[in-house]
Amino acid sequence: MSEPFERDKLVYEQNCEQFRSLNQMMWQVPVIAMTLTGGLWFGAAKIGDMPGFQYLLLLLAVLSNVGLTIVLTRVRHVMSQYLVAMKGFNEAGHVAGGGTGIRAPETVAVTFRALLLISAAVSTIGIGLAYRANSKHPPVGRVLEVIELTK
């Protein structure tokens, strides 16, 4: 076989491997987000009389979900660029997977991003609710009073 064909074949195979890796990453982002958000919400609910930490945990949940939305957007964009490159190699053998509405090519990524942003919004609402609850019933202790220092 010719050298240009072998090079093109190798490039195509590497693009496919990279695409698979990005696809795996795209499916892992929501799992990471659910685990992180659930843990932070649990911590915020169990923190007790330390509203400052409660606000920080909920703020971290907001920032994490927004950050993971950005990551997911970038990963999906790079994946689409790999699809274009792979289509250029063999257009007749390329499966585009097109569609409209719920069958559109980016339906999964759009759904994941929407859910991440909803989680960020719920965390933001949680900050407001925690603030209202803590301003009606101020906490008894302070952070330094709760931590016992030993020599």
What does this protein structure show overall?
- This protein has one domain (3-142).
- Helix content is 77%, strand content 0%.
- The chain is built from 4 helices and no strands.
- Helix 1 (3-46) runs antiparallel to helix 2 and helix 1 runs parallel beside helix 3.
- The protein starts with a helix and ends in a 5-residue tail after the last helix.
- The model has no long low-confidence stretch (mean pLDDT 88).
Question: What keywords describe this structure?
Answer:
151 residues, mainly alpha, 77% helix, 0% strand
Low-confidence stretches: none
General shape: elongated
Compute the CA-based radius of gyration. 23 Å
Binned, the helix content reads over 70%
Helix- and strand-based class? mainly alpha
Number of helices: 4
Strand content: under 5%
Q: Residue-averaged pLDDT, rounded?
A: 88
The beta-strand count equals: 0
Biggest sheet statistics: none
Quaternary status: single chain
Terminal residue distance: 76 Å
The total tally of domains equals: 1
Q: Helix-strand pattern, N to C?
A: HHHH
Quick rundown:
This protein is mostly helical and 151 residues long. Helix content is 77%, strand content 0%.
Secondary structure elements and their pairing?
Layout: H1 3-46, H2 51-89, H3 107-136, H4 143-146
